[in-house]
């Protein structure tokens, strides 16, 4: 079994809003993040992601439950593992008029990191050639990369990123995605909190999906997508209309466009082949359309049986 870098058991966070309303932000959460690779921490806005991260980092106290980082109970033993953790939880705060290198050098001095660590961090995030530019001239994506560079000064074993692609354009999202994968390949475990499912599917090895502060599903991306089976099948056949009629008569849901049929409600594509062959219609293309992570996520989080926890204040939302 893989070593767990992050563990929570029956983690719960309750608080009262300024208006006196009782809110359960995290509700009995069991989270397990294995060592190595990128683990996606997914959930709708307000599902408890940021609150969970803040509790893990000692920025908020848990009401009940247990948390461990690298096997150490937190927050009690957090000081013993703090140097192994880097985190970008809020908007990066740097001096706007200082150049990137100067900003990082000030941070390095505060933690006893050397100039060579500054050089290495800038190189890792792809800002070595922009280190003399003032922070205020940076794009949002570059600011995020500099924030990640700041966490790399102490060579963390665990990097926690809370919605690092928020507000970025497609180019910026791609840059952050590539950076995260590069960091994971160096041996850093990355916990990536996000709601951008297409990006998560491209970068993450495993995921945990939460809703209303509770764990809904967890596993590798392949397991979660694979267990949901086939969403539909694309069918290419010479006589589309005849094929559509026969498949519909067999109880399948069929839609047609100019070039192909799309068949829903079939778990075994071979059934389509058998039905059509029985009417002397032979397929030239049969492509299963498997659900992606976004489909799985939406199916899980739209569950109306999950009770509403009411409005949450900004600091309790993810």
Task: Give the topology.
Elements: E1 4-16, E2 22-34, E3 38-42, H1 49-56, E4 64-69, E5 72-73, H2 78-81, E6 85-88, H3 100-111, H4 115-124, H5 140-152, E7 158-162, H6 170-185, E8 189-194, H7 197-203, E9 206-211, E10 214-220, H8 221-226, E11 230-237, H9 240-249, E12 253-256, E13 261-264, H10 270-277, E14 283-290, H11 293-301
Parallel strand pairs: 3-8, 3-9, 6-7, 7-8
Antiparallel strand pairs: 1-2, 1-4, 4-5, 9-10, 11-13, 11-14, 12-13
Helix pairs in contact: 3-4, 4-5, 5-6
Describe the structure.
There is one protein chain. Helices cover 32% and strands 29% of the residues. It is α/β, with parallel strands linked by helices and 318 residues long. It has two domains: 4-226 and 296-316, Rossmann fold, CATH 3.40.50.300; 230-290, THUMP domain-like (Alpha-Beta Plaits, 2-Layer Sandwich), CATH 3.30.70. Helix 3 (100-111) packs across helix 4, helix 4 (115-124) crosses helix 5 and helix 5 (140-152) runs parallel beside helix 6 (170-185). The longest helix is centred in the middle third of the chain and has 16 residues, at 170-185. The model is unreliable at 304-318 (pLDDT under 50).
Structural class: alpha/beta
Principal-axis shape equals elongated
CATH topology of the largest domain: the name is: Rossmann fold
Strand content: 25-35%
Q: What is the number of independent domains?
A: 2
Counting DSSP H or I runs of 4 or more residues, the number of helices is 11
If you compute it from the alpha carbons, what radius of gyration comes out, rounded to the nearest whole angstrom? 24 Å
CATH 2nd-level architecture of the largest domain: 3-Layer(aba) Sandwich
**Poorly predicted parts:** 304-318
User: What is the name of the CATH superfamily of the largest domain?
Assistant: P-loop containing nucleotide triphosphate hydrolases
């Amino acid at each position: 079994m893989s070593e767990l870098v992050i563990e929570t058991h029956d983690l719960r966070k309750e608080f009262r809003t300024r208006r006196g309303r009782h809110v359960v932000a995290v509700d009995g959460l069991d989270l397990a993040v294995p060592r190595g690779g990128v683990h996606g921490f997914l959930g709708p806005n307000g599902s408890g992601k940021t609150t969970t991260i803040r509790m893990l980092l000692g920025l908020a106290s848990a009401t009940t439950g247990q948390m461990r980082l690298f096997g150490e109970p937190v927050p009690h033993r957090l000081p013993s593992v703090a140097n192994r953790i880097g985190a970008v939880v809020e908007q990066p705060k740097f001096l706007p008029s200082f150049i990137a290198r100067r900003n990082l050098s000030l941070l390095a001095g505060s933690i006893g990191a050397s100039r060579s660590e500054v050089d290495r961090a800038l190189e890792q995030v792809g800002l070595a050639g922009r280190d003399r530019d003032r922070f205020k001239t940076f794009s949002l994506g570059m600011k995020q990369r500099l924030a990640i560079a700041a966490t790399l000064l102490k060579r963390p074993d665990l990097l926690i990123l809370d919605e690092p692609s928020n507000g970025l354009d497609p180019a910026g999202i791609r840059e952050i995605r590539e950076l995260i994968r590069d960091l994971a390949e160096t041996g850093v475990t990355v916990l990536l909190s996000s709601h951008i499912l297409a990006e998560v599917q491209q970068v993450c090895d495993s995921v945990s999906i939460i809703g209303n502060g509770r764990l809904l599903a967890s596993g590798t991306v392949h397991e979660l997508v694979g267990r949901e089976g086939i969403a539909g099948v694309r069918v290419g056949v010479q006589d589309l209309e005849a094929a559509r009629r026969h498949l519909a008569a067999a109880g399948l849901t069929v839609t047609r466009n100019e070039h192909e049929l799309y068949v829903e409600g079939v778990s075994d594509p071979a059934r389509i082949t058998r039905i059509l062959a029985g009417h002397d219609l032979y397929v030239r293309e049969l492509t299963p359309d498997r659900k992606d992570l976004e489909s799985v996520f939406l199916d899980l989080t739209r569950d109306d049986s999950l009770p509403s926890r009411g409005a949450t204040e900004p600091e309790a939302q993810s």
